[in-house]
Amino acid sequence: MTPSTSSGTQLPEPAVLVLEDGTRHTGRAYGARGTTFGEVVFATGMSGYQETLTDPSYAGQIVLQTAPHIGNTGMNDEDRESRRIWVAGYIVRDPSRVVSNWRANASLDEILERDGIVGISGIDTRSITRHIRSAGSMRGGVFSGDAAAIDADEQLRLVRQAPQMAGQNLSSQVSVDVATVTTAMGERVGNLAVLDLGVKQATIDNLAARGFEVHVLPQNVTIDGIRSIDPVAVFYSNGPGDPAASGDHVELLRSVLDDGLPFFGICFGNQLLGRALGLGTYKLPFGHRGINQPVLDKSTGRVEITAHNHGFAVEAPLEGSFDSPHGYGKVEVSHVGLNDNVVEGLRALDIPAFSVQYHPEAAAGPHDANYLFDRFRDMVIASKKDAK
After folding, report:
1. Which one of 38, 254, 315, 322 has the fewest CB atoms closer than 10 angstroms to its CB?
2. Which residue blocks in 69-222 are alpha helix, DSSP H?
3. Domain 14-160's class?
4. Is 375 exposed, middle or buried (0-12, 13-18, 19+ CB in 10 A)?
5. What is the pLDDT confidence band of residue 1, given thresholds at 50, 70 and 90?
6. Chain centroid to CA 6
7. Which three-class secondary structure state does DSSP give residue 328?
8. How far is CA 124 from CA 64, 128, 313, in A?
9. DSSP 8-state secondary structure symbol assigned to residue 10
């Protein structure tokens, strides 16, 4: 029998969140019913849940929202970052019972159910966040509806047999199958090859607004495929997974750099540039996910409030320049995260290539980092002039 409130309103079916260390949190089903597994991470944004849910970088992750009240503005067709919701599961404390926004055409729970996203609500998200900050991100499972009644030991066994995020290559799950083209706006710069590792719509829009004819290419494209569109530059997008498991993308990028093509990378693209230059990457304890992360631009001394979604980072000296182990000249760390001194940007000093770990296409308020798209455009135009 489904429980009900004193007013007679039926409560959602039971659900339980199980972490791989045996921690359990009991709540109510939210979204689709069933079972899901993934890496449990927390996102600190108080707004922008639609952008979070539709960001392909969250594939394979069960996302916990630290903001307690989620869903009040519903879902619309304008704010999607991709074609669907990508999170493996969703954890909220207090889902909104009423949608109140003039652009909304559906409620959040309706879209979660439509896309088959198993979630849980009514649990102490603050407690889980503090636990993850101390113990680190870990595998978890959400069991809702009938699955909530599975024996606790069996639930834990299922969680522990789920794959770790480290070592996973998820690019093929989120990338387009065939190339797409977005027309340049304003003065045309040329064709831009975008490797789709989980690219967001806002990134495509920002690049097109700078005069690039944006060719979004499948993640398995070859260097000959890139050359065939006669690009003026190459861009690597954000995306999910472990950069150490993306050796083919690293080798492709080395071919791009060997061709002398200007390069810009965001998020996963930053990690892959680091590996192409010969640097290492490592997994962060609990990652950076949110829209309020301070980053220092070392070239200007300016602190930017930026949007992040990454669980891995590049290993590199924070001060001074250093030689690329793979022979691409001098390199420097261009941006540093002020919360924990993580590398948030790389700049090659002898070739036209740079990248950032955070998301200049996204912002909660002031667009502090949007200038990076202008910097990329300027670099490409300068490289074209040098080639004449």
Report:
1. 315
2. 108-114, 125-135, 152-160, 171-174, 201-209
3. alpha beta
4. middle
5. very low
6. 42
7. coil
8. 11, 7, 29
9. B
Tell me if 221 sits within 8 A of 183, measured CB to CB. no
Distance in Å from the first CA to the final CA of the chain: 76
> Which one is catalytic: 131, 288, 335, 359?
359
Among residues 39, 215, 267, 332, the one annotated as catalytic is 267
Class of domain 171-387: alpha beta
> Where exactly does CATH 3.50.30.20 map onto the chain?
14-160
Cα–Cα distance, 295 to 343 (Å, whole number) = 10
Cα–Cα dist 247/230, whole Å: 24
- Beta strand 138-144 with 94-95: parallel, antiparallel or unpaired? unpaired
pLDDT higher at 386 or 347: 347
Angle between the N-to-C axes of helices 268-277 and 247-258, in degrees from 0 to 180, rounded to the nearest 10 = 70
Find residue 345's DSSP bridge partners. 335, 356
Residue 182, H or E segment: strand 180-182
Q: What 3-state class would DSSP assign to 316?
A: coil
Length of the chain: 388
Query: Does 25 have pLDDT greater than 50?
Result: yes
Active-site option among 20, 213, 344, 361: 361
Over residues 60-109, the pLDDT tens digits come to 999 999 999 999 999 998 888 888 999 999 999 999 989 999 999 999 99
d(C-alpha 47, C-alpha 67), whole Å: 8
Residues 333-383: tens digit of each pLDDT:
999 999 999 999 999 999 999 999 999 988 666 678 889 999 999 999 999
- Alpha-carbon distance 17 to 158, whole Å? 12
User: Residue 105 has which token pair?
Assistant: 């055409």
Catalytic-residue membership of 267? yes
Q: Is 110 a catalytic residue?
A: no
- Mean pLDDT, the chain, rounded, equals 93
Amino acid at 370: N
Q: Which of 94, 154, 92, 98 is nearest to 118 (CA)?
A: 92
Structure tokens belonging to residue 5: 């409130």
- The CATH 3.40.50.880 portion of the chain extends over 171-387
